[in-house]
Write a structure and sequence with these properties.
By secondary structure, this protein is of the alpha/beta class. It has two domains: about 10-155, Nucleotidyltransferase, domain 5 (2-Layer Sandwich); about 205-390, Nucleotidyltransferase, domain 5 (2-Layer Sandwich), CATH 3.30.420. It is built from 15 helices and 14 strands. An eight-stranded mixed beta sheet has the order 5-4-3-2-1-6-8-7, with helices on both faces. A six-stranded mixed beta sheet has the order 11-10-9-12-14-13, sandwiched between helices. A hairpin with a 7-residue loop joins strand 4 (about 45-50) and strand 5 (about 60-65). Helix 11 packs across helix 13. The protein binds adenosine-5'-diphosphate, acetylphosphate and magnesium ion (MG). Adenosine-5'-diphosphate binds near residues 218, 288 and 338.
Length: about 425
C-alpha cells in the first residue's frame, strides 16, 4: 500500500474592492487546475466565470446578484466542488490570500493568525477599497476549511527595502511617526515577479539588472528595482498616489483637498470618493477602460484624447524620474491589463526618449503574445519588455514555500 501523497495544491484568492479573482494550482508543476473571477460584487449584475482546466468540466458562467465577498467565496467554493476540486479536498495544502496593505510589520508571506488579522484590520483606513475585502476573504475561507493554513502575501512587502529618502514624506517627522505616515507602495507581488521575469528574459540574474516596472492595470504603479531590490515606487501611504489610474487621480497638490473642503464645501468622505472613484481616466472622459478610450480617440473624441494624453504624460514623467533614481537602466517592463495590451500607451510613453537609449520597434510593439517579450530593437541601449504579470502564481509559490519549506521539490510522505 502506498502512503498518501503530501498535499500539493494551493488555492489563491485575490479579493478586490468589487471582485474576487481565484486560481487553484498544483505546485508540483505550477499547473492551473481551475481559474475564475467574480465581478461586480454587491450589484444586481454580479457575474461569476469559472473555468476548470482539470477533470474535463466546461467553462461556466453565473449572473445575478452576489451580495458581498462572503457570498462570492461560497459561490466559488460550490463551483470548485462541482468539478471535484472542492475546498474539502485532502490535496489542498493551503490557501494564499493577496492582502493589499501590510504596513511596516510584514516583510514576507505570513501564516494568518488572529493577531495578523487584527493588524490588517487596523490598516483599513489606509486601504479602504482593498483591506476589508481581503479580510472577508480570509474569514470566509477559514470558516470553510478551519484546519488549513491560510497565508497572507502582502502587496507592500516588496517595497519595504525602499530607502528612507524614498519612503518618507517631507512633513513634520514627529507627526509622521506618531501616525505611521510614510510611503508603503503596492502591487509589490507583481513588481517582484515582473522584475525577476525581465531579468530572466535578458538572460541575467536579478542581482545584475536595474529595471523600471510599469504595472498598468485598473490601479497603476511604477517601481525602480535595483539589483532585485525595490528602491522607489509611485504609490504611497495609500494606493492613491502616483500614476493616473482607471478611477484614481494619482499625484495631486494636497492643497486641492483643502480647496475642495473650504471653497467647494465638500466633506472628507466626498473628497475621498472623488479622488479614488471619480477621477483618473473615468473622471477625465467617463471611461476607465483603455480599449474604449482608444476606440473613442479613433472616432475623433477630444475628451478621450485628453485623458489619454494626461495618462501618458504622467507615465513619461515617472520613467524619467526613475531613470534618474537608478542612474543606469537595463530594462523598462510594461505589465498588467493596459501595460500588456495597449501598444499605443507603450509607444506614446517612450516617444522622444531615444537620447536615453529607449526605443520601441513598431512591429514588435504591435505584435501580440501571452509570453514575456522584447519590443525594443536589438541595437537599443535599454531593453523595453512586455511581461505578463502573474500575481496568483507568485502568491501560490510564496504560500507553498512557507507551508512546506520548499517550492521546487515537493516533500513526499515516506513510503511505508
Ligand atoms: N486589449 C486591451 N487593450 C487595452 N487595454 C486593455 C486591454 N485589455 C485590458 N485592458 C485594460 O486593462 C484594465 C484592467 O487591467 P487589470 O490588470 O486586469 O486590472 P485589475 O487587476 O486592477 O483589475 C482594463 O480596465 C483596461 O483598461
Ligand atoms: C493596490 C491596488 O491599487 O490594487 P488594484 O490595482 O488591484 O486596485
Ligand atoms: Mg491587478
Amino acid at each position: 500500500m502506498t502512503a498518501p501523497q503530501s498535499p500539493t495544491r494551493v488555492l489563491v484568492l485575490n479579493s478586490g474592492s468589487s471582485s474576487v479573482k481565484y486560481q487553484l494550482l498544483d505546485m508540483r508543476d505550477s499547473s492551473r487546475l481551475a481559474v475564475g473571477l467574480v465581478e461586480r460584487i454587491g450589484e444586481a449584475t454580479s457575474r461569476l466565470v469559472h473555468t476548470p482546466l482539470e477533470g474535463g468540466g466546461e467553462r461556466r458562467e453565473r449572473t445575478g446578484p452576489i451580495a458581498d465577498h462572503d457570498a462570492a467565496l461560497k459561490a466559488v467554493s460550490e463551483e470548485l466542488t462541482q468539478d471535484g476540486l472542492g475546498l474539502d479536498s485532502p490535496a489542498l495544502a493551503a490557501i494564499g490570500h493577496r492582502v493589499v496593505h501590510g504596513g511596516l510589520k510584514f516583510h514576507a508571506p505570513t501564516v494568518i493568525t488572529e493577531e495578523v488579522l487584527a493588524e490588517v484590520e487596523r490598516l483599513v483606513p489606509v486601504a479602504p477599497l482593498h483591506n476589508p475585502a481581503n479580510i472577508t476573504g480570509i474569514r470566509t475561507a477559514r470558516a470553510l476549511r478551519p484546519d488549513l493554513p491560510q497565508v497572507a502575501v502582502f502587496d507592500t512587502a516588496f517595497h519595504t527595502t525602499m530607502p528612507e529618502a524614498a519612503a518618507r514624506y517631507a512633513i513634520d517627522i514627529e507627526t509622521a511617526d506618531a501616525h505611521r505616515i510614510r510611503r508603503y507602495g503596492f502591487h509589490g507581488t507583481s513588481h517582484a515577479y515582473v522584475s525577476r521575469a525581465t531579468a530572466a528574459l535578458l538572460g541575467k540574474d536579478p542581482s545584475e539588472v536595474n529595471v523600471i516596472v510599469l504595472h498598468l492595470g485598473n490601479g497603476a504603479s511604477a517601481s525602480a528595482v535595483a539589483g532585485g531590490r525595490c528602491v522607489e515606487t509611485s504609490m504611497g501611504l495609500t494606493p492613491l498616489e502616483g500614476l493616473v489610474m482607471g478611477t484614481r487621480s494619482g499625484d495631486i497638490d494636497p492643497a486641492v483637498t483643502f480647496h475642495l473642503k473650504r471653497v467647494a464645501g465638500m466633506s472628507t468622505d466626498e473628497i475621498d470618493a472623488l479622488l479614488n472613484k471619480k477621477s483618473g481616466l473615468v473622471g477625465l472622459c467617463g471611461d476607465n477602460d483603455m480599449r474604449e478610450i482608444r476606440r473613442r480617440i479613433d472616432e475623433g473624441d477630444e475628451r478621450a484624447r485628453l485623458a489619454f494624453d494626461i495618462y501618458v504624460h504622467r507615465l513619461k514623467k515617472y520613467i524619467g524620474a526613475y531613470y534618474a533614481v537608478l542612474g543606469r537602466v537595463d530594462a523598462v517592463a510594461f505589465t498588467a491589463g493596459v501595460g500588456e495590451n495597449a501598444a499605443a500607451v507603450r509607444e506614446a510613453a517612450l516617444a522622444g526618449l531615444e537620447e536615453m537609449g529607449l526605443v520601441v520597434d513598431a512591429g514588435l510593439n504591435a505584435a501580440r503574445s501571452d509570453t514575456a517579450r522584447l519590443i525594443s530593437p536589438e541595437y537599443a541601449r535599454v531593453a523595453v519588455a512586455v511581461v505578463p504579470t502573474d500575481e496568483e502564481l507568485e502568491i501560490a509559490r510564496q504560500t507553498f514555500e512557507l507551508v512546506t519549506g520548499d517550492v521546487k521539490g515537493v516533500p513526499e510522505s515516506p513510503t511505508a
